[in-house]
Amino acid sequence: MRVLAAMSGGVDSAVAAARAVDAGHDVVGVHLALSATPGTLRTGSRGCCSKEDAGDARRAADVLGIPFYVWDFAERFKEDVIDDFVASYAAGETPNPCLRCNEKIKFSALADRAVALGFDAVVTGHYARLEDGVLRRAVDADKDQSYVLAVLTAEQLARAMFPVGDTPKPRIRAEAAERGLAVANKPDSHDICFIPSGDTRAFLGAKIGIRPGAVVDSDGRELARHDGVHGFTVGQRKGLGLPGPGADGKPRYVTAIDPESGTVRVGSAEDLRVWTVTADRAVWTSGRAPEGPIDCVAQVRAHGGTAPAVAEAVGDGLVVRLREPLTGVARGQAVVLYRPDEVGDEVMGSGTISGAGGVDETVGEAAAEVNR
Asked: Residue 300 is part of which domain span?
């Protein structure tokens, strides 16, 4: 096959491209310029799209003996990822920009251009596995990225390749060194790539501005003032602007955010427990929504936050009724559904969380329907 290897300048994408070459594919490397003002150097493991990253990707392509290009996707990245990120926080949501980048940039904009140029698939260094079109967790659980890939449609998965998902990260670094790739020991990037300072609140404040509101307790009593709901997320414990714990001596957490009134509600850890999750923009990796309720394991954060559940397609969205409560569930996050077998690594579908609530009396009914 003729495949396009997305090369970020890191070790994972370099080894993924190398494995595609080894498999006999006709490989072309491409680095995505996602920043309109790329820095000269990264700050340790923070940031991306620097001139250093582009240079590292080019050198890796040279070692592999494959053609290499740099494509400018900065404007598309700004519109589909950065602007979406800012708008979501302004609306009191907690978005995942990596998830949106995969959906809108790497497996939409990039893949569409690749297909238009005659390529059959896009190769990336994501830690996930594809087996007969089925998306699965990576072998290395600590590096697994199936959660942020669960927004991909069956059509997008059909033209994707994840060559490193079957290998633990230490072995990937060792392989890179064996191949003579200079990025073998390059630090992994983390946090939000377009906020190299790591100060998300300052970044959002500069974009959104001051929109004062109140921090209130569960009874609606005002406890403090704030400069904008973009500085908070459900489940947050620190940086609330409060002098100390609640009257009961226990920590307080953000339990709800109302962007219209600018109200941030805080409460106890128990107040964070939810039993029902609703989501919009459902994606089913099989290409079609299930008929009736299905048993699954729901995950609401990239690492952690899982519970057995019953899910059901409702229009273009889905409803997930949890058998065990989850905490820190925020609008804008993704809920990803995994098959509840002994392995539990197959992605069934996903949706963007639009709401969460307490005990739902239909949990038992849905569970009974599944078990019939």
From this structure: 273-370
